[in-house]
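Hi C.,

You asked whether I'd gotten around to modeling the 289-residue construct. I have! Everything is below, sequence then structure, no commentary in between.
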Amino acid sequence: MLIAVLGLAEDSAPVVIGAMLVSPLTTPLLGLAAGLVMGWPRRQLESLAILVVATLGAIGLAWLALKVIPEPTAVTIQSQELLARTAPRLIDLGIAIVAGAAGAYVLVRREAIGALPGVAIAVALVPPISTVGMTLELGRADLADDALLLYLTNLAGIVLAASLVLLIVGMRPQLAVDNRRRNRVRVGIGAAALAVCCPYPLGAVTADRLTEAVDHDDVTRIARGWAADAGLELGGTRVDGDSIHLDVSGPERPPPVGPLATRLGDALEGEVDVTVDWTKQRVLRATSG
């Protein structure tokens, strides 16, 4: 867990990958899948308890670790490795399902044990849950919600995919035929619930991200044209909801921002608050001799 926090804080992909390899959550997840397939209530409860305690402990540890790491907030929140865990997508559900299936196959086919490190990397449970604690400490509950959605998506996809694979490869409970059928129906219902419930929030987040990207492109295009007409250079564009911040530079003071705000509001179909930060450029000349 500490490895993941350090990797996310330092924006280091190799360190984050190292944290994936030492994930302690894969075993209880596969144990839960086996408990579901075999109809072992006690095993299911034990695995769930381990997952809940491990999840809460990981969030608390990540929160505490970031408290003592001498890292400026501005640097940490700009970490691309951290931000990547706050942007769950539909494809993440597919990755979790494939990883869960692979993990279950390794569980019953020991000759495939060499694939376990790859499964651990694909599952990627530790970085998202570490991100939850870190973003909470940074005061960004919105990012923590997205990271938690990614984590829960991975959990659900892994457990249900692993359960289906264990059924397919022949793991059967020593129960009556009716009970076996009930067990298969239970796993099937879980898979159907996953197929119905998970894509909606993931799809909503994906759609929001696409909308934000389109809005940012529109703002940049309009602002760049406005700056060029005024003899200015656009340095940066930040869009945060209905607030837009532009960094411009040039020798002359920018013109009134009102017309620009109107154009941006029309493009984004809503009222916006535009702030322009102007840096005056000075030209120095000298003649030799």
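If it helps when you're writing up: DSSP finds 13 helices and three strands in the chain.

Thanks,
B.
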